[in-house]
Every structure is written in structure tokens, then in C-alpha cells.
From TrEMBL, chain A:
This is Actin-related protein 5. GO terms for cellular component: nucleus. The keyword Membrane does not apply. It holds the Pfam family Actin.
TrEMBL record, chain B:
InterPro entries: INO80C/Ies6 (IPR029525), Vps72/YL1_C (IPR013272). Residues 81-110 form the Vps72/YL1 C-terminal domain. The keyword Electron transport does not apply. It holds the Pfam family YL1_C. This is INO80 complex subunit C. It is found in: Nucleus. One of its GO terms (cellular component) is Ino80 complex. The keyword Lyase does not apply. Its main location: nucleus. It comes from the Eukaryota. GO terms for biological process: chromatin remodeling.
């Protein structure tokens, strides 16, 4: 291993973070008196954040931050599901992981219920049969009515929550950051938010979301992670198993960046010196088995020896059996001979006939032959045993150095010298350390680019900035100016270094010459939504505007939304109630539509149409 | 605030609960909507496509925002081409494998790739041909 590369090149190793289980907090007195304090839940498709709506310090921060995944193997009881931080390492259970989300909308309410159970029990809510605290929950922009209906049903009927409020996470983040920078709440701006599954462009006019002009691009952190994973797996087919999604997420969080000018930056990567300097070499732990093509020769030889051994064993077993049979036969013949010697002539003759022999001499010759064969067989057996013992001794000597090799977890640059001790068939000398390194070069740049050019992953949607241009074009020039003055960036997927500069540069390209614009990044793009929701809850007490009470739910249905400054827009539209479950009291499904037409009613498959219609 | 140990949480706070795995005590309590717990276990949930299909049938007006109407439209600009291997801007496409490359070294590397790697690179940008 040459030493020059050690000084200038960047070698990193995967941290492979393990999460530790969340403790069960005890509920603080201030959360119960004078009235139950709202619980704020930022329900994200990547991470769920939950906590109390209190001011200050430890209790004013989200108590629970965990990945929105549940691991349940098939056939396992419901109580054996592991949620969030209970799973220390995601990789072994990757195939069992389920999330309540499909893209950014909640569809699986069983898992959502498990999440709520987890949240409530870990926050210390101990009341049986109901949760006394109002809940603030985030939902997707323009959340489908069905999803909201199911969520309201879950909260009001299962948990008997007194009040619920729904809001959009990006808008809560905007609310929080406006308060931080003392902007008027009724301001105009445009929110660019990028999450795990999709990114949104949300214009806000006079403090209220202009929902008709919102747009969503279906590219987010999960697409970036799987893109990176496939890129590296194609580049390093030998390390297929080592390139896991968790490690990809680590690469995204810590080793990727966004270019201010993509083509210019790529040109820089053409030069070898730049490459050598900037490539991030991810050191994988050493594994003896993962030696790809080189081992195939060895493997073949091993397989051959194993086959030989197997054949030998089979032959040996056959010989032993034959030997035993011969031995038995010999014994039999000997007893017959004894009969003759002892003088039992008739029995002797009977046995002779049985054995198909004519005379005593024949018997004798047979006995002689058999005894010879038996002797030979025994000799061979002894030889085999001795030979096996010798080979065993040799093999045990062999295994010693191999064990030490397997024990090395971190690759040392010096290992290539130790390597030659272990006997291997003829192969070219190669750098063991470098073989176990993943070179992440232009990939660092390409993954965040998919947000701006979805064609990199084959999506034909517009990228984020092109969509922004499209959205702005739907407004008058004065409105465009007002919107561009307050571009707000939020969301975990916008945390790449260099993202803000890139967006500023693209805005400069698309806005008219010498017009003003300003880009502001959220203070903590990933968690600000939770803080915004908390501040909203502190300023708007339950029962007021923006909250849905139990009565509202029962009168207006689950899809009802009470609008507020950070919520979706509600278009009143009754949808069919879900099929009533057998154990419940009979509920005639209400299928009133604003434009009553039998065709549209029959088209919705979720209703059980009763003949009695209202 | 004090952190309470899981075991004591079970036995001190809920002496009346008999089952050991009562960290999910809610699932036992809201057996209230008793059928709900059982119903939820076995029912199949609609996925997003099905939900959206139902939602499309509702009587929306032209400018009403809903989940599928806020999908961004397809791009108006032609896509830029990048090399499948290095990511640098690609000027050339291999007619045999349809992979893009920037230089002759990349080309020779391309030609030596096994077919599964070739399909992998094409699948990455959704350019695999379905027609046999």
C-alpha cells in the first residue's frame, strides 16, 4: 500500500448508528393541570416527532423522535411488533418493515394505531380507555378526504380524543420561522419543502395557503437513497450486501452536497487530481468470503476436494458394510463347520443344503476365502483411520491462521503483507484495503440533483425549480414579485450543503433582470414543523378556531377539516362512510352528495348501499 | 421529569392489568369499539392509488385543489443526458446497449459489462425496453 494516498485522500468508515429504545416518560404535572395539554405529533413518512405543547427547555422539545416504521414478522402476535427505536438495527429486519404511509399519505391505519399506542404509552399517558389531551397532527398537503376520515375515526372513536387539529407540516415550519424573524403572520411567500417521498411548492398569499396553485414533485429523500444504493451496487457488484439503505442514508446525510452549477461542478470532477482529492472512500469492514471473482478459482478447488472427500466417505462406508456382511457370513459358516466337528451330521447336511453347498471341503474353501477377505477389509479400515487422523492434524494447523483473519474487522493498510501468509492459489497481488473501499465520487453530487432533474431517475415530472417557475407563471407580475421576495426552504431533504446557493442561483436565472428575491432556509429544517405546531397550539386553545371537536366529527363526518393559518383548504364534500364493522351497532351508510346523481354514488366501491336513501 | 422503568410501569401503575404485554394497553382498552380492533386486524387497507381513484369520482369543480390535481406536470424542457457510469455529461450513446458514455475509456468499459449490469443501469433511468 503506497503511502502517498494516505495523506491526501479521505477515508471514512460507516458509523452504522444503532438506535436505543425510547424510555417511557412520566407525565409532568404541568401537562395535566389546569387542563390536559395538547400532544403535538408531526407524522412524517420518514420520522415521527411527538411531544407536549409546553414552553421551554426539555419539555418544550419533542420527546420522541423515531423512524415511522414497524417490524412485524408474519404470524407474530400484535404485541411482538417493534416500532421505531425499538429496532436497533434496521438491516436484518428490512424486509419486515412496514410503514403506515403510501407516499406521503397515511393509508394503513392499523400501523398508525400502533404508532399512536407507542407515542401515548411512551409519553406517559396513563388514562384508560381514552386520551384526554387534544391532538395536533400533521397531514399531507391536499390530503385525500378518505385518509382524513379514517384518521379522525381512529382518533375520535378509538382514543376518544376531545379535540383534533390537522395542519400541513411545511406551513407550521413557516409559522415558526416567521415568528422567529418577527415577520407579520399575514405575509405572502412561497414555501419549498422537500420530504422523504415528495417535495412541495406551496404559495402562501396573505397568510393563507393558495391551495389551487400548489404543486407536488414526487421526488424526495427515499428516491435519492435508493438511487444511490443502486448506483453503488452496480458499481461494486461484489459488495452487494454491504451496500444497505441505512448506509446510503448515512452517505446522504454526511457525504453528499449540492452543486451550485451542476455542469460546471461535473467538469471539475473530470480532472484526476480533483477526483483523488474529493472522492470519499468508504471503508467497508473486511470479510474473507467477499472476494468475488478471485475466490471462484479457490472455491472450485475447494468444491472439488469436498466432492472427493464425500466420495471417499461413501466408499469407506460401503467397504465397512461389506466387511460386516462378510464377517457375519463367515461366522455363520464357522458355526456350521462346528456342527460338523461336534458330530451333528444331519443338521450339518441340512445347513449345507441351505447354503447351497455339496461337501465339507467346499465349505472349508469358502471359509478360507471369506476369512481372507475379512482380513483384508480390516487392514484397509485401519489404514483409513490412521490416514484420517493425520489429515485432521494438518487441517487443524491450517485453520489457525484463517481464524485470526476472520477476527480482523477494520481493514489495516498493512494487512496486505499479512495476507500472504494464508495460502491461496495463484492470483495477482492486489490491495486488500482498496478492494473493500467504496469510492463515492460524482455520486455525492448526483443524488441531490434528482430533485432538480428527475429525468436522472427516469421520472418525467418537472424538477423543483421548473415547477416553481410554472407556479409563479400563474400569478400576476406584482404577485410574483411579492412571492419571490419570501422564498422559504424547509424539509429534511433540503439539508444538503450548498442547497440554498443552488436555489438562489436558479431563481436568479428565472426571475426578470434586476428583480429582487430572497431565499430563507428554516432554522432546523427537519424539526421546525413540530415547533411550529407547538407554537400554534399554544396560541390557539382547544375549542376555538382550527380545532375539530368530537361534536363536529359526529355532525360533519370524519373528512371535516377546520381551517386555520397552517392548514389545508377544506372543500366541503361528503364522502361515503366506511363499511360498518359487524360488532358495531348498525349504522346506515350516509351517502349524500352535493350533486346527487345515482351514477356517482354507485361508482364509489366503499359503500354498502342500503335501499333506503335519504 | 423522572424516567420510569418499563417493568415498574406495568406493575405499579396498572395493578389491575393481568396480561404481561400491556405496553399496548390501548389495544385492550379500546376493545370498546371492539369490533374495531378485530376489524382492523383483518381488513385490507386501500393503497394510495385506490383512494385516489375513489376521490376522482367526487364532484370536484375545475379549480378545486385535491391530491392528484397538485401533481406537477411533465417537464417542458428536454432532458439532459449524463453518462450512466460516471455521471458526467454524455455526448454519445452506445447503439448496442443504449448506455450513454463520455469517452472512449468508458466505452470500452461499457462493452465489457455483463448483461445484468447493463439492464441495471438502464433500469436506473427507466430506459429498459419492455418489447422483446
Amino acid at each position: 500500500m503506497t503511502s502517498k494516498t494516505d495523506t491526501t485522500c479521505k477515508i471514512f468508515s460507516f458509523q452504522d448508528y444503532k438506535s436505543s429504545p425510547d424510555p417511557i416518560f412520566e407525565i409532568a404535572a404541568e401537562c395535566l393541570q389546569p387542563s390536559p395539554v395538547p400532544i403535538i405529533i408531526d407524522n412524517g413518512s420518514f420520522q415521527t416527532r411527538a411531544g407536549w405543547a409546553c414552553k421551554g427547555g426539555e419539555i418544550g422539545a419533542p420527546r420522541l423522535l423515531f423512524k415511522s416504521v414497524a417490524a412485524r414478522s408474519r404470524g407474530a402476535a400484535r404485541s411482538e411488533t417493534q416500532i421505531g427505536n425499538d429496532i436497533s438495527n434496521l438491516e436484518p429486519v428490512r424486509w419486515l418493515l412496514k410503514s403506515q404511509f403510501d407516499r406521503n399519505v397515511v393509508v394503513n391505519f392499523e400501523i398508525q394505531e400502533l404508532m399512536f399506542d407507542y407515542i401515548f404509552s411512551h409519553l406517559g399517558v396513563v388514562t384508560e380507555g381514552s386520551v384526554e389531551h387534544p391532538i395536533v397532527l400533521t397531514e399531507a398537503p391536499c390530503n385525500p378526504l378518505h385518509s382524513r376520515q379514517m384518521m379522525s375515526e381512529l382518533l375520535f372513536e378509538c382514543y376518544r380524543v376531545p379535540h383534533v387539529s390537522y395542519g400541513v407540516d411545511c406551513l407550521y415550519s413557516l409559522y415558526y420561522n416567521n415568528a422567529l424573524s418577527n415577520l407579520t403572520p399575514l405575509h405572502t411567500g412561497i414555501v419549498l419543502s422537500s420530504g422523504y417521498h415528495c417535495s412541495h411548492i406551496l404559495p402562501v398569499i396573505n397568510g393563507r395557503l393558495d391551495a389551487g396553485n400548489c404543486k407536488r414533485v414526487n421526488v424526495g429523500g427515499s428516491q435519492a437513497a435508493s438511487y444511490l444504493q443502486r448506483l453503488l451496487q452496480l458499481k461494486y457488484p461484489g459488495h452487494l450486501a454491504a451496500v444497505t439503505l441505512s448506509r446510503m442514508e448515512e452517505l446522504l446525510h454526511e457525504h453528499s452536497y449540492t452543486a451550485t452549477d451542476y455542469h460546471q461542478e461535473l467538469e471539475k470532477w473530470r480532472s484526476v487530481e480533483f477526483y483523488e482529492q474529493e472522492v470519499h472512500r468508504m471503508q467497508l469492514p473486511f470479510s474473507a468470503k467477499g472476494l468475488g471473482g478471485v475466490v471462484s478459482v479457490e472455491e472450485r478447488q475447494e468444491r472439488r476436494t469436498q466432492q472427493l472427500r464425500r466420495l471417499q466417505e461413501i466408499n469407506a462406508r460401503r467397504r465397512e458394510e461389506k466387511l460386516q456382511q462378510d464377517q457375519e457370513r463367515l461366522d455363520k459358516l464357522l458355526t456350521v463347520q462346528e456342527l460338523l466337528e461336534d458330530g451333528y451330521l444331519e443338521q450339518f447336511h441340512k445347513n449345507l443344503v441351505q447354503l447351497n453347498m455339496d461337501s465339507a471341503e467346499e465349505l472349508q474353501s469358502y471359509i478360507n476365502k471369506l476369512s481372507l477377505v475379512v482380513e483384508q477389509g480390516r487392514q484397509r479400515l485401519l489404514q483409513v483411520i490412521i490416514g484420517a487422523k493425520i489429515s485432521l492434524c494438518q487441517a487443524s494447523e491450517m485453520e489457525q491462521p484463517m481464524d485470526e483473519g476472520d477476527g480482523v474487522t477494520e481493514m489495516d493498510p498493512d494487512f496486505s503483507e499479512e495476507n500472504t501468509e494464508i495460502e491461496k492459489p495463484v492470483q495477482p497481488v492486489f490491495n486488500m484495503a482498496e478492494y473493500h473501499q467504496l469510492f463515492v465520487g460524482t455520486e455525492r453530487l448526483r443524488v441531490s440533483e434528482i430533485l432538480f432533474q428527475p429525468s436522472l431517475i427516469g421520472e418525467d415530472q418537472m424538477g423543483m425549480m421548473e415547477t416553481l417557475q410554472y407556479v409563479l407563471a400563474r400569478y400576476t407580475p406584482e404577485q410574483q414579485e411579492a412571492l419571490a421576495r419570501n422564498v422559504f426552504l424547509t424539509g429534511g431533504n433540503l439539508q444538503y450543503p450548498g442547497m440554498k446557493e443552488r436555489i438562489e442561483r436558479e431563481l436568479l436565472a428565472m426571475r426578470p433582470f434586476q428583480s429582487h428575491f430572497q431565499v430563507m432556509m428554516a432554522s432546523r429544517p427537519a424539526v421546525d414543523a413540530w415547533y411550529g405546531a407547538r407554537d400554534w397550539a399554544l396560541e390557539n386553545s382547544p375549542g376555538g378556531a382550527g380545532w375539530i371537536s368530537r361534536q363536529d366529527y359526529e355532525e360533519k363526518g370524519g373528512e371535516y377539516l377546520s381551517e386555520h393559518c397552517a392548514s389545508n383548504v377544506f372543500i366541503p364534500m361528503k364522502i361515503a362512510k366506511p363499511v360498518p364493522r359487524p360488532a358495531e351497532t348498525l349504522l346506515v351508510p350516509i351517502t349524500t352528495m352535493t350533486a346527487a346523481s345515482p351514477d356517482s354514488v354507485s361508482a364509489s366501491p366503499s359503500t354498502v348501499l342500503a335501499p333506503t336513501q335519504t | 421529569s423522572k424516567l420510569v422503568d418499563l417493568a415498574s410501569y406495568h406493575f405499579l401503575s396498572f395493578p389491575h392489568l393481568s396480561s404481561p404485554h400491556s405496553s399496548l394497553f390501548f389495544s385492550l382498552q379500546h376493545s370498546g369499539i371492539g369490533g374495531a380492533a378485530a376489524g382492523k386486524k383483518n381488513r385490507t387497507w386501500k393503497n394510495l392509488k385506490q383512494i385516489l381513484a375513489v376521490e376522482r369520482t367526487l364532484p370536484w369543480k375545475i379549480n378545486d385543489p385535491n391530491y392528484y390535481s397538485i401533481d406537477a406536470p411533465p417537464s417542458l424542457k428536454p432532458a439532459k443526458k449524463y453518462s450512466d457510469i460516471s455521471g458526467l455529461p454524455a455526448n454519445y450513446t452506445d447503439p448496442q446497449t443504449k448506455l450513454r458514455f463520455t469517452s472512449s475509456e468508458e466505452f470500452s468499459f461499457l462493452r465489457l459489462l455483463p448483461t445484468d449490469a447493463v439492464t441495471g443501469y438502464l433500469a436506473l433511468r427507466k430506459a429498459t425496453c419492455i418489447v422483446p
